[in-house]
Amino acid sequence: MRAGIVAVACAGFLVAAAARSEPVTARAALELAAIAADAWADDARLVWVENDAPVDSTGQAAAWAYLYYSREKHAMRSWSVRDGRIVTALDHTVSAEAPALDAGWRDTGDVALQAVRARGDAATTATLQSLVLVRGVFAPGSAWVAVFDDGPGPRLHVLLDAMTGDLIKRWRG
Predict the structure, then answer these.
(1) In angstroms, rounded to a whole number, what is the distance separating the alpha carbons of residues 139 and 114?
(2) How would you class 53 by CB atoms within 10 Å of its CB: exposed for 0-12, middle for 13-18, buried for 19 or more?
(3) 37, 87, 96, 97, 172 from 69: Cα distances, Å
(4) Is the dihedral of CA 101, 104, 110, 115 positive or negative?
(5) Which residues pair with 142 in a beta bridge?
(6) What domains, with CATH codes, occur in the chain?
(7) Is the C-alpha dihedral spanning 165, 169, 171, 173 positive or negative?
(8) Whether the predicted pLDDT of 50 surpasses 90
(9) Stretch (H or E) spanning 38
């Protein structure tokens, strides 16, 4: 019965989202991945968000990828959402338990603006290439990593607190 309810919910979301083919923020595409994750595992928790298509300076992309972890299954699965539908679902190898993202993370529209402001005067021509949300990798809490490309040489990384948008650090590499 649960699978049937999820299928109906997914189908309803697909119909509502099908008319939208323009880029969206990460939160705008999250609901469908969350429905799929709930059907996959009762204890599924979101642990990673990343653009799965080029991201623009407004924090929108045509596709977003969402990685979920299940402690019960000791497994990870990701879903890529494009144009209001899941286009890819992949299982991933688990080497360690992944911490859940903080629920109140800022959406990519706000994050992209903060990252552009925080990139610094030396990188004014740098273009946003990637937005990644993760917890416990670059900072103890949930943090957005904005990656900028400004030509030859190492890319600029801007690390922002996912809850406040405050700059944590910048580096090239």
Answers:
(1) 17
(2) middle
(3) 9, 19, 10, 8, 30
(4) negative
(5) 135
(6) 2-92 (3.10.450), 108-172 (3.10.450)
(7) negative
(8) yes
(9) helix 26-40
- The residue type of 12 is G
Mean pLDDT, rounded, for 58-76: 97
Contact status, residue 79 vs residue 89, Cβ threshold 8 Å: yes
Q: How far apart are CA 8 and CA 53, in angstroms?
A: 27
pLDDT tens-digit readout, 2-25:
344 444 344 444 444 444 468 999
- Whole-number mean pLDDT of the chain? 89
- Residue 126's identity, in one-letter code, is A
**Cα(132)–Cα(125) distance, rounded to whole angstroms?**
21
Q: What is the pLDDT of residue 41?
A: 97
